[in-house]
Target: Type 4 fimbrial biogenesis protein PilX N-terminal domain-containing protein
Amino acid sequence: MLNKNKGSILILMVIIIAIISSISLTTLSIAVSQYQIKKTNSNIKRAFYLSEDGINSASLRACDLICRACADSANKTDEYVELYPDDIAVAESLFKNNYKLYVINRAASTINNGGNPSIKIINYNDLFFMDEKLTLHVKSTYVSDAGIEKSLNVNLVILIPCYADIKAGILDFSELFHLSSFDL
Model:
């Protein structure tokens, strides 16, 4: 009775092993693909968060710029007030003009950064205060080691403080700027 099978069991075993091998390779291929997708998604999220970190860095640099502009403008205005103590309206105007010039002249050199993430003011050649506000179009770009590039654009709006508030010491510098119009 064993002689009648003539290799059919061997062929059946080869077919079963081939089917199991195919299923195993398919499962392994799917698992590797899923891993690559998760790794790529992780790299994209990391690039996004590091690009966002560039926006945070630009905000900190803007706050520092505002603090220095206020100090410089207040010093110049104080010198004027010592000479002309009764001319408060001109002192306020002098403070605002000095503040505007200081911020416009130093915004790009203070905020721009050529590192990774790269931070750039896009409207560098078109900076002016309109309605007591300066809008800086800031772009932060991060390029990962894997070559994934993520950019964020934001409008950083800088406001003009009041000279009297600075002299009174009641100014909160964090209220002098805000972010708007996020663009991914």
In short: The chain has three helices and five strands. The two ends are 75 Å apart (CA to CA). The CA atoms of residues 77 and 83 lie 10 Å apart. The chain has a mean pLDDT of 92.
